[in-house]
Amino acid sequence: MPSDATLVFYLMGLAALMMASNRVRYDLIALFVLVTLALSGILSPAEAVAGFGATIIIMVAGLFVVGEMLERTGVARTVGDQILRYGRGREVRLMVPLCVGAAVLGSVMSSTAVVAIFIPIVLRIARDSGINAARLLLPMAFGALISGMLTLIGTPGNLAVSDALRDATGQPLGFFSFTIIGVTILVLTVLFFVFIGRHLLGPLTANGTGQPRRSDRSFADIFRIHGLDRAEVMRIEKSFAGSAARDLTAAAPRILSRWRRGPRGTPHVTLFSMGMDLRRDDLVVVTGSEADLSRFAQTPGVASAGSFYDDMNRWIDTLGIMEVMIHPEAGIRGSTLADLAFRENYGLEVLDILRDARPVSDIHTTPLRGSDRLLVAGPWSRLDGINAATRDFVILEEPAERARSVPNSSKLWIALIILFGMIAVSIGGLSITIVVILAAIAAVMSGTISTSQAYRSIRLDTLVLIAGMLPLSTALDKTGGADMIVTALLQMAGDDSPRAVMMALFFLTMSLSWILSNTATLVLVGPIAVSAALSMGVSPVPMAIAVLIAGSAGFASPVSSPVVTLVVSPGSYRFADFLKVGVPLTLGIATIALLIIPVVFPF
Q: Are strands 267-271 and 283-288 parallel, antiparallel or unpaired?
């Protein structure tokens, strides 16, 4: 055995052990692999760092930007809300559409892009439902990985196998030639996670209990602390302007915000002020006691439209609340809200003041003291900046629903146009890398995300992990290690039984896909599978299909594909998680595939 190949095998084993120990960061392990290959002379320095210039790196970076755009414009929340509505907070009903949806989308576009798009959606669903994100992310990623088994364009490696088959027989694979096998495997995977897999991925909720995690108090909790019993949405059924608007405002409980549909149908939400005009079909958020709200709902021209808490998504992006404390050494002590012109200077409305845990009777004319607790309402941007200019205020608490807000919801349709444009153009045949770069540029140029936000969204640890592991493929090929693995396994299988050879090729391809890229593995093994079948005098189609299916079955390794690697960090997965879930799933898929393939595609 050549010494260089031996060193590569030892290095692969050592990297696997380091990952399994869960004591060293995966990105540091990847850098260790890269440096060792360069210092040993197996690869030149340029070859060792070539992974950082690979197209997959720039594509993944661009996809992080696209994912951030989807989060900040509310696309992720909208999709997540639909899945949540269907799932009704039940883990299985949430997990299944995520897994199947990722598989279906990945079958017609980049599966890496699908995972990057789905990550913010899954994290939001996990946050809103209280379910541990680790129990949702991996099923979604595995579904995207299976997309390579559904269509010919599911992964670039499929085209390499089809080309090898065409060169040998003149008949390439069709677009849906093996879809029935992929669908069977997808169903098996879903059933595996429903009954077994999800229980191997940690507790149901992030805090290890059977109940959703609640780290903060809700809007309703904070309102009740300050004596605001209810928050209701009222619909205005006739116009109020001038003195009529002032009279209505004076007679109403506290009106916080007004929602109005603009001339182009775009909704506008503004903080309410005394005497603000109201038009027919405007909506307003009103807080107060049960009696006050009931009386206001009976006012002619006003009708109840339901609870504010049930209609939160309409308001949450622009209407927020915070509890702030007057700093004990604040310069505004002794001043009243009227003296400070609080509404005019801060753009916020003070709803209540607590002093020694008791409400202040007249909040506008009572001098402020240190440690007073103010409940303020207004746009999130104003709330976040309340203590930026001075040190007079200390932010104490914001509601848990803040996590559901998106800062750029008005540009949701722009984000959707960019997203579907990216999908359509990539299906049309343009390089997915170029398409993703264009989408990232469009996201910044359209204002859906700022340049600084785009750069902050890129997860460098994931990029380093992918780039650092890519040189292993080059090292195996350069030292002849890949050829040695192929030759040894085929010799072990012998050439008497086509099924035995097919099994050997399946496990060879699957094992190599844990180390090499999916495409590199199929480019290497595809022609070998076709040649082996022809030398035995049997049809090469089942051999080619087996190799193709195995190339997308890298479930037991966190670095088998960027599709899987992307979820390692947000899911806080360990190497052992992939072994616990991936090994039994892989064995089940291998068994089903090796039984079905010869039936659908006879030798």
A: unpaired
Both tokens of residue 515?
Answer: 């180390």
Q: What is the mean pLDDT of each run of 10 residues along the chain (603 residues)?
A: 75 76 78 89 89 80 83 76 76 90 79 80 81 91 91 75 80 84 94 91 64 59 83 91 86 86 77 86 88 88 88 82 88 90 87 89 89 89 76 84 76 88 76 84 92 87 78 78 68 71 86 70 75 80 91 84 83 87 91 92 87
pLDDT given at position 112: 78
- Virtual torsion, Cα 267, 449, 213, 101, nearest 10 deg: 90
Q: 320-399, superfamily in CATH?
A: Regulator of K+ conductance, C-terminal domain (3.30.70.1450)
d(CA 408, CA 449): 8
Closest CA to 511 of 533, 531, 482: 482
**Beta strands 254-261 and 349-355: pairing type?**
unpaired
Cβ contact 432:113 at 8 Å: yes
Number of CB atoms found within 10 A of residue 104's CB: 16
**Between vectors from CA 22 to CA 21 and to CA 26, what angle results, nearest 5°?**
115
| β-pairing verdict for 302-307 and 320-326 | unpaired
pLDDT in tens, 79-100: 767 777 787 778 898 899 989 9
Q: How many CA atoms lie within 13 A of 533 on its CB side?
A: 27
Q: Which helix (H) or strand (E) holds 347?
A: none
Radius of gyration of the chain (CA): 30
User: What's the CA gap between 434 and 430, in Å, rounded?
Assistant: 7
Cβ–Cβ under 8 Å, residues 573 and 136 = no
Element (H, E) at 179: helix 179-195
Angle at 528 between CA 520 and CA 163, to 5 degrees: 65
Sequence letter at residue 498: P
Gap between the Cα atoms of 261 and 581, Å rounded: 49
Residue whose C-alpha is closest to residue 349's, from 258, 282, 436: 258
Q: How far apart are CA 316 and CA 299, in angstroms?
A: 26
Could you give the CA distance from residue 516 to residue 525 in angstroms, rounded to a whole number? 12
pLDDT at 211: 41
d(CA 569, CA 115) in angstroms, rounded, equals 13
CATH code, 219-314: 3.30.70
Q: Strands across the sheet with 393-397, in order?
A: 358-359, 349-355, 373-378, 320-326, 393-397
- The number of CA neighbours under 13 Å toward the Cβ of 30 is 24
Cβ-based neighbour number of residue 88 at 10 Å: 9
What is the b/e burial string over 529-560, where b = at least 16 CB atoms within 10 angstroms of the residue's CB?
Answer: bbebbeebebbbbbbbbbbbbbbbbbbbbbbb
Beta strand 283-288 pairing with 230-236: antiparallel
Q: What is the structure's pLDDT at 482?
A: 64
Angle between helices 575-600 and 179-195 (to 10 degrees): 140
Domain boundaries, the chain: 219-314, 320-399
* Euclidean distance between CA atoms 190 and 179, whole angstroms: 16
Distances (CA, A) of 449 to 69, 89, 113, 266, 278: 6, 30, 18, 20, 33
